[in-house]
Specification:
The structure holds 3 protein chains of 3 kinds.
Chain A lengths: L1 H28 L4 H6 L4 H11 L5 H13 L13 H36 L4 H15 L2 H15 L17 H34 L2 H8 L4 H30 L1 H7 L4 H11 L2 H29 L7
Helix pairs in contact in A: 1-13, 5-6, 5-8, 5-10, 5-12, 5-13, 6-8, 7-8, 7-11, 8-10, 10-13, 11-12, 12-13
Chain B lengths: L12 H4 L16 H12 L2 H19 L36 H37 L1 H15 L3 H12 L3 H28 L2 H8 L4 H37 L11 H8 L7 H29 L4
Helix pairs in contact in B: 2-11, 3-4, 3-11, 4-5, 4-7, 4-9, 4-11, 5-7, 6-7, 7-9, 8-9, 9-10, 9-11, 10-11
Chain C lengths: L4 H20 L6 E5 L14 H9 L7 E3 L10 E3 L2 E6 L6 E6 L13 H12 L8 H7 L6 E8 L2 E6 L6 H4 L8 H6 L4 H6 L7 E7 L3 E6 L14 E6 L3 H9 L5 E3 L6 H6 L3 E3 L5 E7 L10 H10 L2 H7 L4 E3 L22 H10 L8 E7 L9 H14 L2 E7 L2 H10 L11 E2 L3 E2 L3 H9 L17 H11 L4 H17 L4 E6 L3 E3 L3 E2 L15 E2 L2
Parallel strand pairs in C: 1-10, 1-11, 15-16, 15-17
Antiparallel strand pairs in C: 2-3, 4-5, 5-7, 6-7, 8-9, 9-10, 11-20, 12-20, 13-17, 13-18, 13-19, 14-19, 21-22
Helix pairs in contact in C: 10-12, 16-17
The chains are: A mainly alpha, B mainly alpha, C alpha+beta.
């Protein structure tokens, strides 16, 4: 098992390098000169100077190495638009997205797992059908649309919750911060909720069909105890799914963040795309992709502990 | 809105494996007919799948035939008739913020929205399917190389990769299509490779090999038939994801550009009028929702009918 | 001694009075403003983001030598002494101007504003080899003060400016240059990025905190040099909310108190819930500036007239819920500079078709025009539906209008770089709203061949000796009445030449909660936030 984990960790390195290469290439596919589009500076001499100061006058492979080298040391350059260091900006934004991702995963896990397990346990009843229908709806609904509807209902009509932003930057634990987080977290939670519910339901059904459950029943265990047993057995799989969903949320929150003007990495990415702010664009995509790789790694390793059979795969 | 996990794919071979004794059947018979008959019977008994197929066919049919349905010009603006409510005479589903007929725009919008849902998956299926088939069949170093390369692309969450590619290339339908296609190649490659590897290891393939059949012939006659089913089921799920992502790209301004009718774009532009015409504003999102859901349900139906576990 | 009844009553009254006073100052509640920009405009001195930037982090944190008077909704805004108390042109050499600076003005860091600070700031912008030169700030203002050639300190409170040629509009041009504190720059280690986090100007507000893309918090500068403009609100919070629906929803849900440009479809709803809506005419034009370069179809007068005649401006105004006025030229008919053009701009598709046919275009060989538009931006109104509407108008006469959507800053950069620049991505024109505040902004910087990029805003590369001569002549007239008359002739000529596509004038709708007090919507792009506060 240790060998497997070690191999899995080492394997992450070429993946990460590949990811960085893709990010770099992608951004340089962009048509036009990044600097002149952003600066609008038409003085050729000055443009050349600025290009040199950003390293844009060097050949691409060299640029890549320089970029990667400094990115590894936490120096991702400066935003072309604001002049602020990209790393600091990214960390702030990532913290906001992380908070949102945790909240959405939590909602998704709580609602999805309980609904899914309940449905699996009461397989074939109307509750099961309702949960399955809701789960299908959850993965099919455009969550940016859901976000708009949530704003109209809960912010504008009822006036209960704020419609945008992350609040005045007070502590994450303050009620103000929670209020701002609620709607985007719910919108984001739709997909993980549905996926977790489906997984949990399938898992519970599979476990229920196993022999040991019959054995438990035969031993005269109450149905509640059996449910407890079953959920304990289903938990590792469900947790693994929510872990992967969490990773997806961090990279996939862009649309919801745009609707709520949530100051996270997705919103930052959106602005950077339309500003053609290359350093911010590169930094954000790289950070999100690497985070995705790492989360996958962690989930994999944790799963190995939970279920040693996996390491054979 | 992510490509569903493709790692843990397993096949229930009891359905796919030819019945005992089938080994002696001469090369060329790939599957017992009874399997597809079973699938057909199961599908026919599944009302959800049938209903979804009907809805999708209706939407797609209307979209394809849109220019001949006698609908008003979807681009014709009329400032005096803007935001007419659903049910207005002459405008069954009302008008949008520029006075354009909603019904016509929703139907015309289906052309682009469905294309953006299906085309990337189809192309990714051709590319990723071939890659996966080759990698799975040849195995060894080729498999290593192909799979490690897809691993790198697979290291991006779907939406992030789509947004990153479309955002870097610049707004436009072509770039959005390209972006989503690239997003779907790795998962399809993985699924195909995984199924191919499993099928390849089965006895009847070994038998065919032993009888000296060429690689191409084995793929064509033995593997393809067994691989296509599960991969196709997987691809139908991806269509629903693709519809969501492409509409999302248009929604943030990276896909279709005005005045094109496209559901994601319409959803965005009608937001501003949500209080004057709430129903009109909600309709495009509803269309995205319904089509995406239908593809999901069809995929579910196919999956259980074909007894494929994804 | 126990406090007797009278004493405690008096104390109570005292507390009540103090409370009342603090309420009258509106201290307790900040004024939260939803901007249309996608980011906080730069704060180091010269804001980006167009005139909305000037409004939000320009006139709040800084002053110009001459400011605009923004306390009157009834009449067009005029110039008012600010960091300079008076200015005059040299009667013998009309290229020389003497500005007398205000004494006793302090920057937010406490250092003195004087002639050295003026020279230092102009060096910052226009002297490329100065150690503190800032290309970013220069890019924002370079096209707005084209006449400036040299500057010189005469004594601690007098500055002499030299213009390239006599220019009676020079005082207007000085209103776009703000003065940042040299002492603060030194203190922060000569770093403009740091300066933008902790800027120091002379304006009625100080920047307390800024989170890029999220919010900027401005606080009252109690020792502002103009006692009348000391802010009524203790704190103003600026929030970038580029998406119109999000902005209006934020107002409806009580997250902000004041928003710029509410979407017209939200206005009935806002009104019914008791929100205040204000609007006012101001010198604004929403045009297409088109390229006059070699291969542009725009060089054909018939095409220019046809496009102008093809647009249904009344319909467009309807689309905007009435919050716009149809344009018949670069300036409104009520302007003293409108003149008497013979080409009447109206909706006449038949005439447009005829002109196009004469120019050699037909349904089989249609005219295609590519125009760069932005999704939002200062003065851009509602660019997407408006452009789509125009697209349909033009289609009706057989013109294909292709819209290339780019971010607002990219569009502005394209405008500064000029038609044909790679930044412009091959478009024939740009939809960039424009200010016609003063003679120079309205005409000189746009239509004079001397303002062709990189110098000025003549994006079009429009070059007409007749126009050049009229601009130059008007620059030499220091009598306002006579100058207005000549400008009227100039404008009439430009309209007859159908130089641009003039579409509508904005009326700058704004929406605010019931509790907002003190807001006066001046007839200008710039507005004064100092008297605005939120009552309890």
């Amino acid at each position: 098992m240790l060998y497997y984990i070690l191999r899995r960790v080492l394997y992450t390195i070429p993946i990460a390098i590949g990811v960085s290469l893709i990010v770099f290439t992608l951004v340089h596919l962009a048509p036009g000169d990044p600097l002149s589009a952003v600066m609008g500076e038409v003085d050729q001499k000055m443009l050349a100077e600025m290009r040199a100061s950003f390293g844009y006058d060097k050949p691409l492979p060299l640029q890549y190495l320089i970029w990667l080298g400094s990115a590894l040391t936490g120096d991702m350059g400066y935003s072309l638009r604001t002049g602020a260091p990209v790393f600091g900006t990214l960390i702030d934004a990532a913290a906001n997205t992380m908070v949102l991702g945790v909240a959405a995963s939590f909602v998704g896990f709580l609602v999805g797992a309980s609904a899914g397990m309940f449905a699996g346990y009461h397989h074939g009843t109307w509750v099961d059908k309702a949960v399955s229908a809701a789960a299908i709806a959850g993965v099919s609904i455009p969550h940016y649309w859901l976000a708009i509807i949530l704003v109209i209902v809960f912010s504008v009509q009822l006036g209960w919750l704020p419609s945008m932003g992350a609040g005045a930057g007070a502590s994450v634990l303050s009620w103000d911060a929670w209020k701002h987080m609620l709607l985007p977290a719910i919108a984001l939670a739709a997909i993980p909720c549905a996926i977790v519910a489906r997984t949990a339901r399938a898992c519970v059904m599979e476990i229920l069909s196993m022999e040991f459950v019959e054995a438990l029943r035969a031993r005269g265990l109450s149905e509640r105890r059996i449910l407890l047993h079953v959920s304990r057995n289903a938990l590792p799989t469900v947790l693994a799914v929510i872990g992967l969903q969490f990773a997806h949320l961090l990279g996939g929150s862009i649309l919801v963040e745009v609707v709520f003007s949530w100051p996270g990495t997705g919103y930052l990415l959106n602005l950077a795309i339309f500003d053609r702010d290359i350093p911010v664009l590169q930094g954000t995509i790289l950070l999100l992709a690497l985070f995705f790789v790492l989360t996958n790694l962690v989930v994999d390793i944790l799963q190995t502990f939970a279920d040693p059979r996996i390491s054979r795969a | 809105m992510n490509a569903p996990e493709a790692q843990r794919i397993t096949l229930k071979f009891d359905a796919l494996t030819p019945a005992p004794g089938a080994m002696e059947v001469p090369v060329g018979v790939m599957l017992p007919r009874t399997y597809w008959q079973t699938v057909g019977v199961r599908l026919a008994r599944d009302p959800y799948t049938a209903a979804c197929a009907f809805i999708l066919l209706a939407i797609a049919g209307a979209a394809v035939l849109a220019p001949w349905l006698g609908l008003p010009d979807p681009a014709a603006t009329n400032a005096a008739q803007r935001l007419l409510p659903v049910g207005s005479s002459g405008h069954l589903l009302g008008t949008d913020e520029l006075g354009r007929d909603m019904l016509s725009r929703l139907i015309h919008g289906g052309r682009l929205s469905l294309t953006m849902g299906v085309l990337p998956v189809a192309v990714a299926l051709a590319i990723g399917g071939t890659l996966g088939l080759v990698a799975g069949f040849i195995g060894g170093r080729t498999n290593m190389l192909v799979m490690r390369l897809t691993d790198v692309l697979y290291a991006f969450p779907s939406i992030l990769l789509a947004v990153a590619i479309a955002g870097s290339l610049g707004a436009g339908v072509g770039n959005a299509l390209l972006a989503i296609t690239i997003v779907f190649i790795p998962p399809i490659t993985r699924v195909t490779e995984s199924v191919t590897t499993q099928v390849r290891a089965m006895d009847f393939v070994e038998a065919a090999r032993a009888s000296g059949a060429g690689a191409f012939r084995i793929i064509r006659t033995h593997i393809l038939g067994n691989v296509m089913g599960p991969v196709f089921v997987y691809a139908t799920v991806l269509v629903s994801v693709s519809i969501l992502i492409s509409a999302g790209l248009s929604f943030i301004g990276l896909g279709a550009s005005p005045p094109t009718a496209e559901w994601g774009l319409m959803l965005n532009t009608l937001r501003e009028s949500i209080f004057l015409a709430p129903l009109n504003a909600v309709l495009p999102g509803f269309m995205i929702f319904i089509t995406s859901m239908c593809f999901n349900l069809i995929s579910d139906g196919l999956r259980s009918a074909m007894d494929v576990r994804l | 001694m126990k406090p007797n009844r009278l004493q405690s009553t008096l104390a109570g009254i005292g507390i009540a009075a103090a409370l009342a006073a603090s309420l009258a100052w509106g201290q307790s509640r900040p004024l939260r403003v939803g901007m249309t920009l996608s980011d906080i405009p730069t704060t180091s001195g010269q804001p980006n983001g167009g005139f909305e930037g000037y409004r939000m982090t320009g006139y709040t944190l800084y002053d110009a030598l001459i400011n605009w008077k923004l306390d009157n909704a009834k009449a067009p805004s005029t110039l008012v002494p600010a960091l300079a108390t008076s200015w005059k042109v040299d009667a013998k050499d009309t290229t020389k101007w003497l500005f007398t600076l205000r004494k006793g003005v302090k920057f937010h860091d406490g250092s003195e504003f004087n002639a050295d600070a003026v020279v230092w700031n102009l060096d910052k912008l226009f002297k490329k080899d100065a150690p503190h030169h800032d290309a970013r700030q220069r890019a924002q203002v370079a096209g707005r003060i084209l006449s400036l050639k040299a500057w010189r300190k005469v004594d601690d409170y007098t500055i002499e400016f030299t213009t390239h040629a006599p220019d009676s509009t020079f005082p207007y041009q000085t209103t776009y240059v703000f003065y940042s504190s040299p002492a603060q720059y030194e203190k922060l280690g000569r770093d403009w990025n740091k300066f933008s986090q902790q800027p120091s100007g002379t304006g009625p507000f100080r920047l307390e905190k800024m989170t890029p893309r999220e919010r900027a918090e401005l606080v009252r500068n109690s020792s502002y040099w103009d006692a009348k403009r000391v802010p009524k609100s203790q704190r103003v919070v600026l929030l970038p909310i580029p998406e119109p629906t999000t902005r209006a929803s934020a107002l409806l849900s009580g997250q902000v108190d004041f928003i710029e440009a509410p979407p017209p479809d939200f206005i009935p709803r806002l009104k019914s819930q008791g929100f205040q809506i204000t609007s006012n005419v101001y010198p604004h034009i929403w045009p297409y500036f088109m390229s006059f370069r070699e291969d542009s179809p725009w060089r054909d007068l018939r095409v220019r007239k046809a496009v102008n005649l093809a647009i249904d401006r009344e319909g467009l105004v309807k689309l905007l819920g009435g919050f716009a006025a149809p344009a018949a030229g670069a300036v409104d008919k009520s302007s003293p500079w409108f003149g008497k053009p013979t080409f009447i701009i109206k909706h006449d598709p038949a005439a447009a078709r005829k002109l196009l046919a004469e120019a050699g275009y037909s349904d089989s060989k249609p005219l295609t025009l590519k125009v760069m538009v932005s999704p939002s931006g200062s003065g851009q109104m509602l660019p997407r539906p408006m452009n789509e509407y125009i697209q349909q108008n033009l289609k009706a006469v057989g013109i294909n209008l292709e819209l290339v959507t780019q971010d607002w800053e990219v569009l502005r950069n394209c405008r500064r770089a000029g038609a044909g620049s790679p930044i412009c991505q091959g478009v024939h024109g740009i939809n960039n709203s424009s200010a016609t505040v003063d003679p120079f902004s309205a005409f000189g910087r746009i239509y004079s061949s001397k303002a062709i990029p990189p110098k000025g805003f003549n994006y079009m590369y429009y070059s007409d000796p007749k126009v050049d001569a009229m601009v130059e002549k008007s620059n030499n007239i220091f009598d306002e009445k006579k100058r207005d008359q000549l400008l009227g002739e100039l404008h009439a000529y430009l309209v007859d030449q159908a130089v641009d596509v003039w579409v509508v004038h904005d009326v700058g709708p704004r929406a605010m909660s019931k509790q907002v007090r003190g807001w006066v919507q001046a007839r200008h792009w710039f507005q004064d936030l100092a008297p605005v506060y939120v009552a309890d």
